[in-house]
Amino acid sequence: MSEKSNKPKIKKRNWAFVLYPDSMPEDWQDIITQSGIPCAISPLHDKDKNATGEDKKPHFHVILCYDGPTTYSAVSAFTASLNGTIPQPLESLKGYYRYLTHKDNPEKAQYDETEIVCCNGFNPRDFIDLTKSEVLQYIKELQELVRCNQIYEYSDLLDILLDSDMTDHYDVATSHTMLLAKYIDSRRNKQQLAAKQQQPQQAAQQQGTPF
Fold it and tell me: What is the pLDDT of residues 131-166, one digit of tens each?
């Protein structure tokens, strides 16, 4: 039996397809929003090259996340309403989400992750874990934030991250409480010790100052 004849029998929760600006309907965003399907839309890929170095047609990559396993027929009916490409089932949502910006493909054009549009309740943190290297990078940035802002309380760090809407940093900080709290405590203790050591010197200087 051919792959094409098997497709209507496929049932997956997560799917992906491609939209081309020159063929999608003007109200494409409304269609997606009104569908209620949680989805993520990539930045416009307008710098991609094909194997021969020629410019690829500008396009968007779209992830669809259904509440449960959904048939190819149902998904293709939806993508057809947008004039999108044939939908493809996703084996790795995490991998494809990272592909929205070519995060793991340095040989390809890179796109800004902040330009990914999430609709209908799609939250990447519900599906995608940070890699170990990403967590380490966030910890380094948090350490630098503590140093540069002379933060001596863990609660102050969390307040700053919350008020600044630094969601990823907040997630890492709250999941590495012991590490960051001990680091902040150590800096506070070091600062207090230095202050105590300066007090006798300051007192001696004041006593020796003539009136």
Answer: 888 899 999 999 999 999 999 999 999 999 999 888
Query: What pTM does this model have?
Result: 0.67
Domain range list for the chain: 10-126, 132-197
Residue whose structure tokens are 């010790």 = 193
In the CATH scheme, what is the code of domain 10-126?
Answer: 3.40.1310.30
Q: From 176, 198, 186, select the one nearest 153 (Cα to Cα).
A: 186
User: Measured between alpha carbons, how far is 37 from 125 in angstroms, rounded to an integer?
Assistant: 17
The amino acid at residue 172 is V
Cβ neighbour number for residue 103 with a 10 Å cutoff: 16
Cβ contact 12:87 at 8 Å: no
- Specify the DSSP element, H or E, that contains 11: strand 11-19
Query: How far apart are the C-alpha atoms of 99 and 102, rounded to whole Å?
Result: 4
